[in-house]
């Protein structure tokens, strides 16, 4: 699990979105260089973008469930990509909601609207929706920034169990969160000439205890940003 940290506007979200080519949906983006996923450059010609985004899922800052039932939110990707029987679908919805630590709270109201859930529950539902299609990587852009401390703790606990199963890249503003949950940390900053400058990348321990760059040390100690 890798945390991306850095002051607002330094290009963290943009970088994250480059990792599953989702930024392209927002309009004109120019990308240089390569992003390798299992040895394959995802920017090479002929890449199947739908399959790529299925394998590299994303969870956004504000929970964005579909205006549909809790059940349908989880089943959505499965219905599109797989031809499953109703019982198989039911089983996957249940196991996915369990995996997202939400099952006990919603098992009696699966057909109710997802929009009736609390913010923290909605965010865990969005995580479940992303997990349902069994991605290999999950990109998360400040997934707790719109949540209260208790919901944040629940999502963090969930991240701890998820990182045993898949690769997670998480953007966070919360230094404690970054140091608690991640194994590696990348510090981004803006310098005179450009946005999106990766200043330092190392084990989370090194970044927080003994960073090489002075600006990384200043940032993790809360001296700016
Ligand atoms: N590598 C880059 N080159 C040029 N502009 C960038 C780059 N990365 C980000 N930007 C621009 O900088 C602004 C802030 O980027 P964003 O990714 O939203 O920052 P953050 O998520 O760190 O707050 C956006 O307008 C974005 O388009
Ligand atoms: Mg951002």
Provide a brief overview of the structure.
By secondary structure, this protein is an alpha/beta fold. The protein has 10 helices and 8 strands. Strands 4-5-6-1-7-8 form a 6-stranded mixed β-sheet, with helices on both faces. A two-stranded antiparallel sheet has the order 2-3.
Q: What is the helix fraction of residues, given as a range?
A: 40-55%
* The CATH homologous superfamily: P-loop containing nucleotide triphosphate hydrolases
Low-confidence stretches: none
CATH topology: Rossmann fold
Give me the CATH architecture, please.
Answer: 3-Layer(aba) Sandwich
Architecture overview:
This protein is an alpha/beta fold and 225 residues long. Helix 4 (86-99) crosses helix 6. The two termini are 23 Å apart. The longest helix has 14 residues, at 86-99. The protein has one domain (2-220): 3-Layer(aba) Sandwich (Rossmann fold), CATH 3.40.50. It has helices at residues 12-18, 49-55, 70-81, 86-99, 103-106, 119-132, 149-162, 175-181, 204-209, 214-220; strands at 2-5, 36-37, 40-41, 56-59, 137-141, 167-171, 184-189, 197-203. The strands form two sheets. Strands 4-5-6-1-7-8 form a six-stranded mixed beta sheet, sandwiched between helices. The structure holds adenosine-5'-diphosphate and magnesium ion (MG). Adenosine-5'-diphosphate binds at residues 6, 8-14, 195-196.
């Amino acid at each position: 699990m890798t945390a991306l940290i850095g002051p607002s506007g330094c290009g963290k979200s943009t970088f994250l979105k480059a990792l599953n080519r989702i930024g392209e949906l927002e309009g004109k983006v120019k990308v240089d260089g390569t992003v390798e996923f299992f040895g394959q450059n995802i920017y090479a010609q002929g890449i199947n973008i739908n399959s790529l985004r299925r394998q590299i899922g994303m969870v956004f800052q504000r929970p964005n469930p579909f205006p549909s039932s809790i059940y349908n939110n989880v089943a959505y990707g499965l219905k599109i990509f797989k031809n499953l029987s109703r019982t198989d679908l039911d089983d996957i919805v249940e196991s996915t909601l369990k995996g997202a630590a939400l099952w006990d709270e919603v098992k009696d109201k699966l057909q109710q609207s997802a929009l009736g859930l609390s913010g923290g529950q909605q965010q865990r539902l969005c995580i479940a929706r992303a997990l349902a299609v069994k991605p290999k990587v999950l990109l998360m852009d400040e997934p707790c920034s719109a949540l209260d401390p208790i919901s944040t703790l629940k999502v963090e606990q969930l991240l701890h169990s998820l990182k045993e199963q898949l690769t997670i890249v998480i953007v966070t503003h919360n230094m404690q969160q970054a140091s608690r949950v991640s194994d590696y940390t990348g510090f981004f900053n803006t310098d005179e000439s450009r946005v999106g400058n990766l200043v330092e990348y190392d084990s989370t321990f090194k970044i927080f205890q003994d960073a090489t760059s002075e600006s990384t040390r200043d940032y993790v100690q809360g001296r700016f940003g």
